[in-house]
Amino acid sequence: MAPSPADATSPQFDPLSLDLLGRNLREEMDGRPRVPLNEVKPFPGAGLYALYYKGDLAVYEDLKGLDIPIYVGKASASDSSYGDPPNMTEPKLFGRIRGHRNSIKQADNLDPSHFDVRFLTLDDIWIVLGERALLRAYSPVLWNTVMTGFGGNSPGRGRKNARSVWDSIHPGRKRAARLLCNRNYSSGEMEKLISDGISISLLEAGEQRDKALKEFRNRPAQIIWEEAQVSGHGSKSVLVFRESVFVEENGRFEFDLSTLEWQLADASKQTTAEAAALDALQG
């Protein structure tokens, strides 16, 4: 059959296009078996991995039984800037998975038995592309974007560092033990953020999902506190915009506010922050 006019004028097929390569990597990853996280044994190589939650926490209820990752990550074989061939015998990918398993163990309301993991060993050249394809396919991927803090480096032990969203929902990690509450979200606001993120991940790919993602990413956060410079002696204190949230959230983590120098923002800024937070929670 002769091609239709539309077929004849369609873009030339490129078997090495980034979109096609990304889709192939994602399909290969999705075809790998899900392995219980607490049963992964050491193996060599680098590549991609994805974590899947299968526990009973209410905040993740809508994800239960679905094949949607809660976190996507990568481990490269080599960080050499000289172009030296990577050592593919080193267990780089397993090491990253093991690190996350240990992190999950520390959380009060999680356990490695609550998770499955998929992984795919790859040459370094494909790893970044594959990670982007997975993130795009399952966006917003809760623990990568909505619940920041799971895979990052320790924020330090200073009391004026903020607790991440992840460590607020899953307290218990030593690295977050002495941190103040999150700067922008109360626990209720975090739960709504997570619920909205899951709802978007369940939408079919297309214009509606793209629009929902754009609105979600552009949603402003409502500040609870920030560091402030005290006039006169130059020491730093904490400036609080939402006092009730600040006190309640730090009380949840048994942070003794009497040991901290803090002050309220002026009344107009407090009112603006409270009103904006209420609108976001009800919106």
Provide a descriptive summary of the structure in words:
The protein has 283 residues and is α+β, with helices and mostly antiparallel strands. It is built from ten helices and seven strands. Strands 1-4-2-3 form a four-stranded antiparallel β-sheet. The protein is globular, with a radius of gyration of 22 Å. Residues 155-159 have low confidence and may be disordered.
Brief sketch in words of this structure:
Residues 155-159 have low confidence and may be disordered. The protein has 10 helices and 7 strands.
Helix-strand category: alpha+beta
Give me the side-by-side strand order of the main sheet: 1-4-2-3
Mean pLDDT rating: 87
Which spans have pLDDT < 50 for at least 5 consecutive residues?
A: 155-159
Beta-strand portion reads 5-15%
Q: How far apart lie the N and C ends?
A: 54 Å
Relevant terms:
283 residues, alpha+beta, globular
Topology, pairings included?
Layout: H1 5-8, H2 18-31, E1 35-36, E2 47-53, E3 71-75, H3 92-106, E4 115-121, H4 124-138, H5 142-145, H6 165-169, H7 187-201, H8 207-217, E5 225-229, E6 236-240, H9 243-252, E7 262-264, H10 267-282
Parallel strand pairs: 6-7
Antiparallel strand pairs: 1-4, 2-3, 2-4, 5-6
Helix pairs in contact: 2-4, 7-8
